[in-house]
Amino acid sequence: MALLPIEILGSEVLRRRAADVAEIDEDLRILIGDMFETMYDAEGIGLAAPQIGISRRVIVVDVREEGAEPFALINPRLVETGQEREKGEEGCLSIPGLAAPVDRPLRVAVEGMNADGHPVRIEGEGLLARCLQHEIDHLDGVLFIDHVSPLKRRMLLQKWKRSFATDAVLKAEGEGRSGARG
Question: Higher confidence at residue 83 or residue 182?
């Protein structure tokens, strides 16, 4: 398995609808393993293939709740949503340092295939439902910031740009200092 670089806001692949997976083979299973490793390394609870630069409809999820097992879904689709909604804090590995409350259905049902190509149905509520919706959004080129008001989105993006620019400057300065130490 390998750690893969995570695409950051601004990457085109994050804004495109990902392609359906036509064939489940060993390469796809390796990709899924790499996605789990990358997700765990980044301390996330879900990861979609576009977040690692691969425009395919694959997600991995591990909400790390008691009784919940990690799983991968291929070509997942939301087939049911409950009427009850809940606002909850969301962040994203592709937009580090930002979080905002997002209103989503509390319960969902998702269908897709597992890594062996067998049809599966996952019913989730609470954090699992939120994670499934968030990751499937990624497959459709949608980010959590698209679910907040335009004003809130503008404020979040300004905050992120300031933070991102500061991080880039600090990194560059750090590299410059270490280079000067020779």
Answer: 83
Residue with tokens 């300031």: 162
- Number of residues assigned to the chain: 182
Burial class (CB in 10 A: 0-12, 13-18, 19+), 53: middle
The string of pLDDT tens digits covering residues 25-47 is: 999 999 999 999 999 999 999 99
Its pTM surpasses 0.85: yes
Q: What is the pLDDT of residue 177?
A: 38
Work out the burial of residue 95: count CB atoms within 10 Å of its CB; fewer than 13 is exposed, 13-18 middle, 19 or more buried: buried
Q: Does domain 12-148 have CATH number 3.90.45.10?
A: yes
Q: Is 40 exposed, middle or buried (0-12, 13-18, 19+ CB in 10 A)?
A: middle
Q: Which residues does the annotation mark as catalytic?
A: 135
Q: Please tell me the distance from the alpha carbon of residue 122 to that of residue 54, in angstroms, as a whole number.
A: 23
Give the phi and the psi of residue 72 in degrees, each rounded to 5: -115, 145
Q: What is the pLDDT of residue 174?
A: 52
Domain spans of the chain?
Answer: 12-148, 149-182
Which pLDDT does position 150 carry in this prediction?
Answer: 94
Do β-strands 71-81 and 85-91 pair in parallel, antiparallel, or remain unpaired? unpaired
The first and second tokens of residue 2, run together, are 């390998």
